[in-house]
Write a structure and sequence with these properties.
heterodimer; A: mainly alpha; Alpha-Beta Plaits; 2 domains; two-stranded parallel sheet; two-stranded antiparallel ribbon; 15 helices; 4 strands; globular; B: mainly alpha; 2 helices; 0% strand; elongated
Chain lengths: 314, 50
C-alpha cells in the first residue's frame, strides 16, 4: 500500500464492527469458561489475571487479584498469584483486560448506551489513577498486617475488628464482586428472605458496594472503561508490567500520516501518536485493537517482540 | 530510569517464573483451590445469609 492509499470510511466502519463483535464473542466465551460449573465442570481454582470474585456462584477459576489478597491475609506471601500476574502481563500486556475480563465485558456492554462519550487522556488518567493506587496500597497493607498476625497465630482480634475486610479487602467493595457474586447470591437467596421487608436487614456494606457499582456503571456510560482506567488495582499492576510485554502495538512510519483517528477511538485515552513508531508502550493500552481497525492507512499493527533498548517511556 | 526496557522485560519474566515456581513448590495452588471452594464472605458483604 502506498502512502496515498486510504481505506474507505465504509470499510473502516465494517472492520471496526467485525473486530468489536469478535472481541465481544471472546469476552462472552471467557465468561462462560470461568463459570463452567453451569455446564457441570469442577472447580479448578486456577488463578487468572482478570477481576472476578472467587465467590461467584458458578466459577471454576479464581481472579488473580482475589488470590493475591486472600493468600496474604492467610499468612503467606502471594507468590503464585503474583507469578501469574507478572508472567501473563509480560507476555500479553493488558490484553486480558481488553479481551477476557468479565467486568471489562460489563463495561463494554454499558458503553453501548447512546451517550456522548468523553475520552479523558493520559494526564487525567494519571491523576485519577490515584484511586487504583489507593486500593492496591490498602489491600497490601491490610493483607500484610492480617497475614503477619495470622502467621503469629494472634489474628482473632484483628479479624474481629476488620470484619469482612480481613479476608479479601478489595472484594468487599469491588464492583465486579457486587455484580458477579453479591447480586446473583441475592437473587438466589431471595425466596429465603420471605418478605420484601427482609431488605431492611441488608447491611450498610451491601448498599455502599451497590452504590459504588451503580456509580461506576453510570460513569462508564460516559467514559469508556472508566473502571479499568482509574479504579482497577489489577490493571495497575498489569499495566506497569505490560509496558514491556512481548505482544505490543506499533506504527508503520511509511503509512502513518498522524491523522489521529486511532486516538479518537481508543477507549483508554492512549495518546498513540506521542509514542515512537516501534512501540506504543502505554500502561493503559488494553490491546483491544479498536485503533488498528480505525486506521484508514493500515498503519497500526500488533507485534510480537521483545521491547528494544531504545523504546521510550511515558 | 537506568534499566532499559529490554532488561525490564527479562527482569519481570524472571521474577514471574521465580514466583510461580515458588508458589507451586510451597503448595499455594492447593491453598487457592481451597479458597475458591470455600464461601467468600467478602464477596457478599452486607448480605444476610439465609
Amino acid at each position: 500500500m502506498s502512502s496515498e492509499d486510504k481505506i474507505s470510511p465504509e470499510e473502516v466502519a465494517a472492520r471496526t464492527r467485525r473486530i468489536k463483535t469478535f472481541r465481544l464473542f471472546i469476552q462472552i466465551l471467557v465468561l462462560l469458561i470461568i463459570n463452567a460449573q453451569i455446564f457441570g465442570a469442577e472447580d479448578t481454582g486456577f488463578p487468572v489475571p482478570v477481576l472476578y470474585p472467587a465467590g461467584a456462584p458458578y466459577t471454576v477459576m479464581v481472579g488473580a487479584y482475589y488470590a493475591f489478597e486472600k493468600t496474604m491475609t492467610s499468612g503467606a506471601l502471594p507468590f503464585l498469584a503474583l507469578g501469574v500476574i507478572f508472567l501473563i502481563s509480560v507476555i500479553s500486556g493488558r490484553a486480558f483486560c481488553g479481551w477476557a475480563c468479565p467486568f471489562g465485558l460489563a463495561q463494554d456492554v454499558v458503553g453501548f448506551a447512546p451517550t456522548k462519550k468523553k475520552r479523558p487522556d493520559r494526564l487525567v488518567n494519571k491523576d485519577l489513577q490515584f484511586f487504583a493506587q489507593f486500593f492496591l496500597f490498602m489491600g497490601v497493607i491490610i493483607g500484610l498486617y492480617v497475614g503477619w498476625k495470622t502467621y503469629q497465630g494472634t489474628d482473632v482480634d484483628v479479624r474481629e475488628g476488620l470484619g469482612v475486610f480481613s479476608d479479601a479487602p478489595f472484594a468487599v467493595y469491588s464492583p465486579a464482586a457486587t455484580l458477579f457474586a453479591t447480586i446473583p447470591y441475592m437473587i438466589g437467596w431471595y425466596p429465603d428472605y420471605n418478605d420484601p421487608l427482609a431488605f431492611t436487614d441488608f447491611g450498610m456494606l451491601f448498599w455502599i458496594s451497590l452504590l459504588f457499582l451503580i456509580l461506576i456503571l453510570y460513569t462508564v456510560a460516559y467514559v469508556p472503561r472508566a473502571f479499568c482506567r482509574w479504579f482497577c488495582p489489577l490493571g495497575l499492576i498489569m499495566g506497569e508490567c505490560g509496558k514491556y510485554s512481548l505482544i505490543g502495538l506499533s506504527r508503520n512510519p511509511a503509512r502513518c500520516d498522524k491523522c489521529g483517528d486511532c486516538e479518537k477511538v481508543c477507549p483508554m485515552g492512549v495518546r498513540i501518536l506521542d509514542y515512537p513508531y516501534e512501540r506504543v508502550s502505554d500502561t493503559y493500552c488494553i490491546l483491544c485493537m479498536d485503533c488498528v481497525a480505525a486506521c484508514p492507512k493500515d498503519a497500526l499493527e500488533i507485534t510480537f517482540n521483545i521491547p528494544k533498548k531504545s523504546a521510550e517511556e511515558k | 530510569m537506568f534499566i532499559n526496557p529490554r532488561l525490564r522485560f527479562f527482569f519481570i519474566l524472571f521474577f514471574g517464573l521465580l514466583f510461580l515456581s515458588i508458589g507451586i513448590v510451597v503448595g499455594q495452588y492447593d491453598d487457592i483451590k481451597e479458597y475458591a471452594a470455600s464461601f467468600c464472605d467478602s464477596c457478599t458483604a452486607g448480605l444476610p445469609k439465609p
